[in-house]
Amino acid sequence: MEYYRLLAQKEKLERERKKINQRYSYLHISDKYGMSATVVRKLAGLPPTLSKGEPEASEQLTLPEATSDVEPLPESYLTQPLNLSSVCTLKQRLFQPQFQPANTSELHPQNKYMHIKRSQRCKVCEHNLSKPEYNPSSIKFKIQLAAFYHIPELRIKNISKLYLEKTCLVEMVLINPTPHLAHITFEPIEEPSDDLSTVKLPPGELVLAPRDDTAEFDDINDNQSFKDDPNIVTFRKANKLGFMFSLVPTSKDVVVSFKMKHDFINMVVTLPGEQPREPQVVWLTHSLKIRLGTVVGEM
């Protein structure tokens, strides 16, 4: 136990030493104002006290030796039934060498240091991707980076059996995360490669209802205000919509690629006293590449 205590003390001193910034430019202040030695050493990044006279503690781990004196087992080991779920494993005991609990009721929470995000920048536009501040609303950089709350989500729901050179169907789900109507269209890519399967995208425009957290408690029909093609749209529920499209696999690995175009309404925030501005509608295009699996054979 003494070895572990000394080892923990050494690691703590190393962590504190890394936190101290060395400031050699402040050493001349002591000559002018007569500062104490403790303050000068602190400004210089040195320990506040000298430790030359202190004896260095030994960190040699003594090897265990066999002994004939063994403590007798408690009577509960012989009289009470064994419950393995209440007994600590060897890994749990070694994680806490100071206590080495035998039962799970004696476990203590481990002291871990909090990890924060690093400050990263985009290699193209030099925008901050993540900042280490605890409160993101307090930073000056406030570009909307959370695409999860602004871009429609596309999920795979069902895939029929894939046969080579045969028409297959794929059902996908669109989810609108914004509080506005979303208009989505799909377009083919300009230069398809040979390893991509031939895909037939749904024509026209798909309209998604805005996100409403109270919609699941309403009994209103979701299809009452939308005119959907039953050959394309499979279901509609609140801000979710399912649709079908067909494809023809041309290789063993079935990969499709297309473009998704949708509108984005940017709500401009105005300061008190300013005239309200009209929301900006921007059309965004995303190139998608989806791997649907492998073919099961030739039909």
Automatic annotation (TrEMBL):
Its main location: cytoplasm. Pfam families: Dynactin_p62. Residues 48-68 are annotated as: Disordered. This is Dynactin subunit 4. Subunit of dynactin, a multiprotein complex part of a tripartite complex with dynein and a adapter, such as BICDL1, BICD2 or HOOK3. The dynactin complex is built around ACTR1A/ACTB filament and consists of an actin-related filament composed of a shoulder domain, a pointed end and a barbed end. Its length is defined by its flexible shoulder domain. The soulder is composed of 2 DCTN1 subunits, 4 DCTN2 and 2 DCTN3. The 4 DCNT2 (via N-terminus) bind the ACTR1A filament and act as molecular rulers to determine the length. The pointed end is important for binding dynein-dynactin cargo adapters. One of its GO terms (cellular component) is stress fiber. The gene is DCTN4. It is found in: Cytoplasm, Cell cortex; Cytoplasm, Cytoskeleton, Microtubule organizing center, Centrosome; Cytoplasm, Cytoskeleton, Stress fiber; Cytoplasm, Myofibril. Belongs to the dynactin subunit 4 family. It comes from the Eukaryota. InterPro entries: DCTN4. Keywords: Acetylation, Coiled coil, Cytoplasm, Cytoskeleton, Isopeptide bond, Phosphoprotein, Ubl conjugation.
